[in-house]
Structures are given as C-alpha cells and as structure tokens.
Amino acid sequence: MTTDISNSLDKLRRALGVASPPKEITQEDFDGGRDHLYRLARLSADEDANGLDLCEYMSDLLYTEIQVPFFLFVLPFCLKAWSRGLRAGDLEYPGFVDEFYPVLAKRGIFERHLTPTQGEAVRGFMRASILDEIDAQNGLYFRGSGARPYRWIYAITTYGVIAPDIERIWTSWWSVETVGRAIATVQYISCLMYAKDGNPVFAPYSREEGGGPPSLWEFDGHLYENRWQQPNIDFLENLFRAPECVSEVLARAVNRLADQPEHEAAAKILADLPSRSRTLVDRCAMLPLFLATPGQTMDGSDWPS
Questions:
Q1: Which residues contact 73 (CB under 8 A, 6 or more apart)?
Q2: 264: how many CB neighbours lie within 10 A of its CB?
Q3: CB 125, CB 12: distance < 8 Å
Q4: At CA 92, angle to CA 32 and CA 84, rounded to 5?
Q5: pTM value?
Q6: Spatial separation of the C-alpha atoms in residues 185 and 218, rounded to whole Å
Q7: From residue 151, how far is each of 157, 173, 302 by CA, in Å?
Q8: What are the residues facing 164 on neighbouring strands?
C-alpha cells in the first residue's frame, strides 16, 4: 500500500468518524456463519481485509439489515480492496468488486446510511482513485482481455450508476493536464471512432485471448437492472451534443503527447478522425441512450458501425 493511499484512507476514516468497531456486532450474517464479521472487526487500519471475508460481508449487506456503525468501520477496508483491484488488478477474490457495487447501488448506501459529508468522502476517494489510475496510463496498443484500460473505463461507467457527479471525473480527465489523462482520452475516443475489429488501440477479440475494444456502456458488478443516474446522462448528452468537442479534446491530447512515445500512434488516430466523423456523431448520440437503459439490454449489434 503506497503512502498516498494510506493518507487517503486516514482522511476517509476521519470523515466517516469511526476509528474502531462497535462494542457489539449485531450485523446479521446471510450464510449462517459469523466468523468473517469477527475477523473484520479485529483489523487494524494498516491491514488488508481477507478477500473472502469481504465477499461474505457483501452478501450480509445485500440481503440483511445493515448495522451502520460496523459498516462505517469496515467501509475503508472495502474501498482499499476496490482501489487495489482498480489500480493493480490483482485482487485475491475479484468477485468482491462484483458484489460491492450492487451494495452501493441497491441498498441506498449514500441516501440512507451515510451523511452527506460521509457520502462525499466516499465518492471523493473513488473519484481520486479513478483519476490516479487514469494518470498512470501508458501505451496505445493492447491485446487480450487483461488490458489495463478496461479497468478504468468500466470504473467510470459504473461510477455513473452509483453517484450523480460523473462530471467531476470527466472534466478533470478531459483537461488532459497529465500525460496519463491524454493517453486515456485517446484510448476512450478510439472506441467512439473505430469499428470493433479496426481499432488501432485494442486488438480484435480472439477466442484464445479475448480483448477487443471495451464496451463504453458496460458496468462492472451485478448491476443488471441499473442505469446511469439522470444528472450523469444529462451531462453526457450535453457534452456530446456537439461532437466537435470530442475532436477538440483529441487534438489537445495529441499535442500533450508531443514528446511522448505514444505521440505517433495518437497523431494517426487524430488524422483518421475526418473519415470516421459519421461514426463518431452517431455513437455520441447513442451512448447516453445506452447508459440510460436499465439492465444493459443494449449489445454490440445496436452500436453504430
């Protein structure tokens, strides 16, 4: 765990106002065993929670009444594991993230279990983690399903389900103030421009390796009945109403990469933009609709080619 993450978690704990677990753990268990709850209660701030314990706790939260004081104690450990999955992609139990997102989205965590100050602290930690991963991006060619850009793209897409302020991530990201943000901008815009088998950033899908460009409307986790929150849809519709803004930010990203190894590849993508303008316009119009549709019922066949 880096010092920056440690400091961020310390700040989060202060905002949540819970430094230790409650004296009595009344949280119900879903699967008939409470040992995982007691192990979580014994954690010190600098420890990592066991992944299986977190998975079992997510089931408790999803299907039983939530003991809020205990939840506030464990939440930083959940966010630490979530951030590790985003930044390093090496969670012991990747299924934890699939369960964590539904807890946030379906149990009214921000609306019913956190104060506005606590909720903003949690969202702020998540936004900062996503932007940190964006800042760390490098490279403009990827093959296979393990490609790093999938992690931050799906984190942004899923954040739009659980929080109403996607604009605060997007505006910082598309400022292209860092090399990583410029690279991530090119990665993302390539998915708005090219056919799935013609994207120069993401090699085509193969049965052996997976891969292909990420689906810009796909959510992480079991969010089959969820959609983007309306303020986020409104933001993206307004942003994409004039597709030339996408062209402008791509040009700024290429300029930001002028002295970087990715510049040549990024400049070729910018040069391709005029011939892909019809696809860009159609996809900019369609993407907010995809994200506004519950259940992710849209599939690649609906995506303009």
A1: 18, 20, 21, 22, 41
A2: 11
A3: yes
A4: 115
A5: 0.95
A6: 18
A7: 10, 15, 23
A8: none
